[in-house]
Every structure is written in structure tokens, then in C-alpha cells.
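User: C-alpha cells for this one?
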Amino acid sequence: MDQFTINLLFVGASFALYIGIAIWARAGSTSEFYAAGRGVHPVTNGMATAADWMSAASFISMAGLIAFTGYDNSSFLMGWTGGYVLLALLLAPYLRKFGKFTVSEFIGDRFYSQTARLVAVVCLIVASTTYVIGQMTGVGVAFGRFLEVSNTTGLLIGACVVFAYAVFGGMKGVTYTQVAQYVVLIMAYTIPAIFISLQLTGNPIPALGLFGDHVASGMPLLEKLDQIVAELGFNEYTAHHADTLNMVLFTLSLMIGTAGLPHVIMRFFTVPKVSDARWSAGWALVFIALLYLTAPAVGAMARLNITEMMWPNGTQGEAVSVEAIDTEARYDWMATWQKTGLLDWEDKNGDGKIQYYNDKNAEMQAKAAEKGWTGNELTKFNRDILVLANPEIANLPSWVIGLVAAGGLAAALSTAAGLLLAISSAVSHDLIKGSLNPNISEKKELLSARIAMGVAIAVATYLGLNPPGFAAQTVALAFGLAAASIFPALMMGIFSTRINNHGAVAGMLAGLTITLIYIFLHKGWFFVSGTNSFTDADPLLGTIKSTSFGAIGAMINFIVAYIVSGMTKATPQEIVDLVHSVRVPRGAGSAQDH
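Assistant:
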């Protein structure tokens, strides 16, 4: 059986499972559509939360970014895991005790303002839409490779699948679908990692193999990797080269952005009791750790494999030949990925070899000139392909490659569904029912939620065709927007009685507006040949990049909220009592819960 057929079997079987679950768990009421009827078991919810959380950025893109940058991109690991701890400890139990369907509804009621609720809707939609672009990018990459179609065709197919199970299933259908998706994605991520760790280090546990010895050379694996990439003119893998301030701000932006993501927060509204929300958070951390402890090993081992493959006889010997790519089975993966448009090479000097090195390094340029090389001839290597191509690079069995195909799609689709549900809930429950038509019937509200999700899928698909970066980079922008707008409002809403409606609205608007302006000015939105494109300009504030500015936006949000609240009327006593009742643990886990 050929690889394409095996891929179809794995992907087709997983899709049939997802759609079947969605039909079985189809939402029949607004409570089931928004919060799964508040009847999800904590372990089940923890697993669904993990799938919701581990998106295309985590599964497909993160290890690729770590692989090609090394230590400096450990910010993704520290920011995302640390942020989830913040969410679990500081927000989830209190928001569940408040007992509402959406984040915007909490903000509207806590700050006793319809305006605050509408501003929260805008913040939520902006952050979630940016986030879902990254997921659709991942969908396109995975479908493009494993169905052997273009990236664009793959994205359109993925959009249809999301529509089939998310629009009709709502939160209830999505929850149980995500449980299945978690099982698929964690197997797809860890099994290839175990194979590759055994090949390179002899250790079946990738996280331990990362710090073990490289079998072929006898050197510590990371020392071997540092040596080989340095010889090609790249920075040492384990060394820190980035601006420290920017790295700290980026990590902080990811952390507080994580704690402000509405699609993850919504998961804690689905359990019966406040105590269940706490247990859900604990279980989710366990399930998330299985992937995040493996990701650094996946990145490092993949970088070593791809580098040694491009220089099979060492950096001072012969680079891979064009003929080898055409004739040797171990290079079949390159020809296959070239069809997607995400990988390409060119024999620029006609010597029959494909040189891969850092042509921006002056010392390496000089060495290359001596040998007659004319520049890095691996002209395109989209980092989002690395995890998906890893089993092929390592020459793993065909069924492992098929499993990875299903896993990558599960990761992207699970988070996309959660984000689209957050967007549709904001539109139907907070905008339409909460403001435009308060007397709308439950049936019509449910219909409007499904229509809103359909529109959101269409918009996300269009934007996903021209993303502003790799999947994880696009997601990082979304985290910055959530950090600057939603997280401060939730924190102040729970832990401060002084912040009033005027302060909350001013803070959210200030944080969101300044961060958006900074991102657009730094990234530079313009049109090239009819295609939307982003390019980095010089940072406007020191060395702070657009992906790191969310932390600054959050500080501005806090400062503006406190200043405006101090200049306006104090919070009403009934709201002060409400805040105290949400924070008091008495009755947690009992019938006294909201």
C-alpha cells in the first residue's frame, strides 16, 4: 500500500470519528451550544482543554521554530506553559463560580456596563480571529502535504471539515470531538519522537534523550548539534543570542495572553462545579505536559537530522547532490514537500550539489567563496513543515507518517473549532442577544450562533491564505492582543473592587488600540501583486518587536484603568459585594455555586 493511501486511511478514519461524535453530541439548546450543558466530567474537560490549547502552533510550528533558532525560541515553551498556570490559578475557578456563558458576559456584568460588554466582544473577536489564522495556516500545511494538493486547496478542505462538525455540534459536540482529537494528536506527536530518540540516542524517552549521547559520534547530542550548525555559520543551538529584554517581554506577553484567551476560558464554564474547574485545570496541565516536555527534543533532533542529511559527508565534505534528490529514496520527502510550495532548492552555480549554510554569516561567505559556492541553495524551508516531515526525514514506517498526518490536522482543527465557537458565542450571545435583540428566542439565538460561526470560518479561511507569518508567529500576535485587552480586565474584575465601568472600558480600548497600532506599524501592512503581505520594519520602541508588545499594552491597560477609575465615580456597593462573593471559596464544589 502506498503512502498516499495510508495517509487517506488515517485522516479519513479520524475525520469520520470527529463528525460521528459531533452528530451524536449535537447541541439542542443554547446551554449545550455555549457550555455543553455544564455536564462535562473534569478529566474529560481536562483532555478537551488540552486539545483546545495545543493548537497547530504547538503541534506543527513550535518545534520548527525551536529547531531553527534554538534556545532563544524556548520563550514559546516558557510563555505558553507558564500562562496556563496563571489561567488555572488566577482566573478559571472564579469565572466558573460567576456562572456565565462567555468572557464578554462576565465583563459586562462585573463592570455593570453594556459598553464594557461590547468592547470585550471587539477585543475577543480581534484576538480570536488573529489566532484562528494561525490554525488555518497549519490546516493548509498538513492537508497540502498529506493529500498532495496545494496549500490553498488543503486550507479549503480543512475549512469544510471544521464547518461540518463545529457549526452543528457547538460546545457539546466540540468538547467530545476534542477528546478524540487529543488522543490522536498526542500519539502522533510522541510515537515518532520515541522512534527518533531511539535512533539518535538509544533512549526511548525523548526528553531524556535530548541530554544523552549521540550514538553515531559518541558526543552529547546537544554538543554535536552545536558543532555541526556552527560549522555551517549558524548560531550555536544552545547559546542565547537575542535581546534579553525583548525575550522577557515576549515570554510575559505569551503568559498573560494565554490567561486571557477566551476559547480556553470557556472550557471552564462546561463543568458542573467550581471544584471541577480546578480539577479540570490540573488534568489539563498533565495532558499538556506530555507534548511540551517532548517538543524541545523533537526540535533539536529534527535540526540534527535535516542538517546531516544536507551534508551527508560532513560540512567539510560534499553537500547533497541534485542527482541524489532525484534518485535516492531517503530524499523522497523533499520531492513530495516541494509540490506543496513550502520547500524548494536551486543549484545556483550548476555544480550538481545543493549547499545549505548561513549565507548571511561573513566567515561562512568567505569559506563558500573559496569553494565556488554562490549562496544558500536551499531557497525555501517553511518551518511549519518540520514536525510533519520529521518521520519521513528519519525514514520511519509508513503508518507513523499517516498517524502524524492525522495528528497535525487534529491539533489545528481542535483549536480552530474552539476559537470559532468563542467568536460565534460573542456575536450571538453578547452582541445580538445582549445588545441588539434581547428578546430573541432560544431557537433563533442558536441559529444566529451557527450563522456567525459559518461567517467566521469563511473569514478565517480567507485570511489564512495570506498569514502574517509562520503558524506560531501569527498565534504570538493573537496572544499579544489578548494580553493587552482581555487579561487585565479579567484580573481587575476579579481582584479589584476599585475598577469601575469607565476605567475598564478605557483600559481595554487603550490596550487594544495601542497594541494594534504598534503591530501594524512594525509589521507594515501593504499589498504586493494583489497579495496581502507582512514585513518587519524597525521596532518603534527600543528593540521591542510586535510579538512582544502585548506585555506593554497590558501595562498601559492597567495604568489607564486605574487612573480613569480614580477620576470617576466609585464602584456601586452591589458590585463590590458581587466581587467578594466570587472570590470567597466558601461553598466551592457545593450547591451554593453559581
